[in-house]
Design brief:
Blueprint (H helix, E strand, L loop, with lengths): L1 H25 L3 H32 L7 H17 L15 H20 L8 H21 L15 H31 L4 H7 L1 H21 L1 H19 L8 H27 L8 H27 L5 H30 L1
Length: 354
């Protein structure tokens, strides 16, 4: 199972930058590309929500093994669409970059060790070797990676690429939105099944409003961004997401689904979807055609690090409370505070840009 998931991860890592390059080829004008990226941002988070929702149905009526069929079907449809929509000649004018093997190895090892240390913090203290050593070595390797990238001919991550204020804001927004979505699905699944005794099917059905919120916002996100701008929409999304997290921070053993969980379950994904859409546009602002794949890879890395880093840090905060449910509430409240502070930081950025 671990090996298969590893191979699946390699495939996903290849798809993200390739997809971005294809979108940049298909949508040439700035407005078209902005709209496409806004839709991409919403669809990317919607896929995870639909997968989570369908998992309860599949495991209840079929078997958990059938869930692995869905990626196969999606890949098959994707192969057909790509062959019909793209021609080999469309890529002839794109320069071929060199292969930065040293950078790839350092970045992969650094991020993996750092993430492993964060994950282990759920079982061990932050001061133990199981946590501190992987985190410190991971940070060291990432530092070496940044140094190496300044000296190689064809760097994996060109110096200054993520230093653009808009792009940095977009990547942080993607990381925070992914962290918030991972937190809500993980903690509320535990709460409903372990403390309220809900079945897997009932738990997945509890997230129907969550999915509806994503669907509704994804339909209008592109138009909103074209009209009001990606940065204001990202800020509004962060504030809406903060409200949803603060509502979930009122969680306790007697919290009802309808009045206690439902508002946050709907409001948070609405805000997160706006953040994803706006941040996707910000992350790819002024990206040259030959750097579209790079932008996609960086965005995908930020999206994957969000749940890992965010969940590990917030679960460490939850562990400070004697009662498990109180810890969950603290985790939601802390995440809401981070969303709010990120929105304030983005507001300051707007004033500097103006």
């Amino acid at each position: 199972m671990v090996v298969i998931r590893f191979v699946q991860g390699i495939g996903a890592a290849l798809i993200a930058p390739a997809l971005m390059a294809l979108l940049r080829q298909l949508y040439r004008t700035p407005d078209q590309f902005k709209h496409a990226m806004a839709t991409w941002g919403g669809v990317s988070v919607l896929g995870g929500a639909v997968g989570f929702l369908s998992s309860g149905i599949v495991t209840t009526w079929l078997s958990w093994r059938w869930m692995f069929i869905a990626p196969v079907l999606v890949a098959f449809v994707g192969l057909i669409l790509v062959r019909r929509m793209m021609k080999p000649a469309d890529l002839d004018d794109i320069p071929t970059p060199g292969l930065d093997l040293s950078g790839a190895l350092l970045a992969t090892c650094g991020i993996s060790l750092f993430s492993f240390g964060l994950i282990m913090s759920g079982e061990y203290s932050w001061l133990t070797n199981q946590v501190s050593i992987p985190i410190m070595v991971g940070i060291l390797l990432i530092g070496v990676f940044l140094i190496v990238e300044r000296r190689v001919t064809s760097p994996l991550l060109p110096p200054g690429f993520i230093c653009d204020p808009r792009r940095a804001t977009g990547l942080i927004g993607i990381l925070l939105a992914a962290a918030g979505m991972g937190l809500i699905t993980f903690l509320l699944s535990l709460y409903l099944q372990q403390f309220r005794g809900w079945s897997p099917f009932a738990t997945s059905m509890a997230f129907v409003p969550y999915t509806i919120g994503l669907l509704l916002i994804n339909r209008v996100a592109g138009s909103l961004i074209i009209r009001f701008g990606a940065l204001p929409i990202t800020i509004i999304g962060l504030l809406i997401g903060a409200i949803g997290l603060f509502l979930l921070a009122m969680l306790n053993a007697q919290t009802s689904y309808t009045l206690g969980l439902l508002p946050g379950l709907f409001i948070l994904p609405v805000g997160a979807s706006l953040v994803f859409s706006g941040s996707a546009v910000l992350s790819t602002a002024n990206v040259q055609l030959h750097q579209a794949g790079l932008a996609g890879g960086v965005m995908n890395t930020s999206m994957e690090l969000g749940p890992t880093m965010g969940l590990a840090a917030l679960m460490a905060i939850a562990a400070t409370q004697m009662e498990i449910i109180d810890g969950y509430a603290w985790a939601f409240g802390t995440a809401g505070g981070v969303y709010f502070l990120a929105a304030l930081g983005a507001l300051i950025l707007i004033k500097k840009i103006k």
